Amino acid sequence: MEILAFGVQADEKPLIERAFAGHHAVRCLDVFVNEDTAPIAAGHEVISTSVNADLGPRVLEILAAGGTRMIAQRSTGFNNIDLQVAERLGLTVARVSYYSPYSVAEFAWTLALAVNRRIVRASTRTRDFDFRLDGLMGRDLHGRTVGVLGTGKIGEAFARIAHGFGMRLLGWDVAENPACLRLGMEYVPKEQLLTESDLVTLHVPLLPETRHLIDAAALKSMKDDAILVNSSRGGLIDTAALVSELRAGRFTGVGLDVYEAEAGLFFLDRSLEAVDDDTLARLVTFPNVLVTSHQAYYTEDAVDQIVDATLRNVLDYRAGRRSENVLVPRS
């Protein structure tokens, strides 16, 4: 059987081909699944997709009509998949429920440190042999307060690094993490966390109840000189409201690895095209904002684990087994 893998990055391709060797043939495509590309999957029982795939009702109907019976998504998030429609169409859906939390936590810290110490501006200057320090002053993080929204595996890994910096730890989640409590984390209401934190980082899934978790009111409640980092899902932040606050001169820095309208932009080269997203175009002009292209997970360790889990999901499907990764079971 040949697996058709959509949205495969160049660095991912050899890892996927190596993992599937000896099990199933795999064909890697760099295009993402959407209404235009879904017909390519015709005749393929199993496809693999990335987090920016469009797996809404119409696309799922095209896939099912073409003979697809299983979707193996190479990500933890699955907010891009209409699971009810998939179940109605008899499509098995699986995801990767776990991979290295350190990849995302370490990258979130990379963003926080970069905006705090003006690393991008400094690097750009030195390339032009401008070695002035004007505008490059940052702050010690030691002794300051970090607020972690979402204290699962990634949030815990972020908190451990913060503990190493000697920071006061505030947490918010539906359940307290004992490991975070042992680090000295104090769980508080979201409003208190936002008001008291010098650094706020997001590590919660994107669900209907968490969409725009950081809305206009939340942003206004934060310190004027706070740092905001999002390496989870773009829809957690009301980007238009964030732009409004940035225009008012607020925040020491904002580090975003995700963007709520990133589909059709991230993972693609749009450098020679006119991008019609005015909000993103405005966002990247702020000198205190750093936007990266959803790369927090992108380490050899994490991608290896993602690919291995995807292979197991396919093998489980073929064998009629069900694991914790299955979102819609085989009918």
Automatic annotation (TrEMBL):
TM regions (residue ranges): none
CDD domains tied to this protein: LDH_like_2
Residue span, D-isomer specific 2-hydroxyacid dehydrogenase NAD-binding domain: 110-296
Short name of any one Pfam family annotated for the protein: 2-Hacid_dh_C
Matching InterPro entries: D-isomer_2_OHA_DH_cat_dom, D-isomer_DH_CS, D-isomer_DH_CS1, D-isomer_DH_NAD-bd, D-LDH-like, NAD(P)-bd_dom_sf
Keyword Hydrolase assigned: no
Superkingdom of origin organism: Bacteria
UniProt keyword annotations, A-Z: NAD, Oxidoreductase
Boundaries of every D-isomer specific 2-hydroxyacid dehydrogenase catalytic domain copy: 8-327
GO terms, molecular function: D-lactate dehydrogenase (NAD+) activity; NAD binding
Family: Belongs to the D-isomer specific 2-hydroxyacid dehydrogenase family.
PANTHER family in the cross-refs: 2-HYDROXYACID DEHYDROGENASE HOMOLOG 1-RELATED
Protein name, UniProt field: 2-hydroxyacid dehydrogenase
Species of provenance: Streptomyces resistomycificus
